[in-house]
Design a protein that fits this description.
Structural class: alpha+beta
CATH class of the largest domain: Alpha Beta
CATH superfamily of the largest domain: Pseudouridine synthase
Strand content: 25-35%
Shape: globular
Helix content: 10-25%
Largest sheet: 11 strands, mixed
Radius of gyration: 20 Å
Number of strands: 15
CATH architecture of the largest domain: 2-Layer Sandwich
Number of domains: 2
Length: 248
């Protein structure tokens, strides 16, 4: 007779599997890098094999999948997963980082921009297209992250990447702030899309807020705020880990 309290009906985990082998879905707070979160969980759980399934900028919040133990073998699969974001496009100014953390480089009039104009421009960013990574990014050129070169005032040629935007829709039109939802493939720079829209409309723009609401099959409702996880006892934290078998 099956135990009604059994959480999964899948086969038993492999021999020597540890209770922390799997994926821990975290709601990342603002102000931390993805590696900061990895380090915090590594100290909390007390193991070395910890990684993440897709970088979030320090200013961004939301779904960050932390891989533990044998869960790190899922790295390639999680990195390739599609992502969904909710963000805020700010009209009237562009920055050197393309988001609110940078220094304003140009300003323009935005009052004449209508919702219809913006929606028409957003259509140009749906489907397949090539995107050039911004200088302020973790993309490496000859082993050096672009953001380190940018800090030195350097600009280098970057290879465009093929990305796909499945969904790009306005949630609230309240200029200069425009709230939107965007679903895309891996490696998409949402702040670059916001910057490019501002350039195309002639008013300049940047990304002022970003929240990842899903990564693959994991949405924000399945995550736990990082600070809450760090305060949990060991057994309660283990209950938050999704087993490897759920991703195969």
């Amino acid at each position: 007779m099956q135990n009604k309290n059994q959480r999964f009906s899948t086969p038993a985990p492999p021999q020597n599997a540890q209770p922390y082998d799997g994926v821990l879905p975290i709601d990342k707070p603002t102000g931390m890098t993805s590696h900061d979160v990895v380090d915090a969980i590594r100290r909390k759980v007390g193991i070395k094999r910890v990684g993440h399934g897709g970088t979030l900028d320090p200013a961004a919040t939301g779904v960050l999948l932390i891989m533990l133990g044998r869960g790190t073998k899922l790295s390639e699969k999680l990195m390739k997963s599609d992502k969904t974001y909710e963000g805020t496009l700010y009209l009237g100014s562009s920055t050197d980082s393309q988001d609110a953390t940078g220094t304003i480089t140009e300003e323009g009039e935005w009052e004449h921009i209508t919702q219809e104009q913006l929606e028409e421009e957003m259509k140009n960013f749906k489907g397949d297209f090539y995107q050039t990574p911004p200088m302020v990014s973790a993309v490496k050129i000859n082993g050096v992250p672009l953001y380190k070169l940018a800090r030195k005032g350097k600009t280098v040629e970057r290879k465009p990447r093929l990305i796909h935007i499945y969904k790009f829709k306005i949630l609230d039109f309240n200029p200069p702030e425009i709230k939107f939802v965007l679903r895309c493939t891996k490696g998409t720079y949402v702040r670059t899309i916001c910057h490019d829209i501002g350039e195309n409309l002639g008013c300049h723009a940047h990304l002022s807020a970003l929240r990842r609401t899903s990564a693959g099959s994991i949405d924000i409702e399945k995550t736990t705020p990082l600070n809450d996880l760090l305060e949990m006892d060991y057994q309660l934290l283990l209950d938050k880990i999704i087993p490897i078998r759920n991703f195969t």
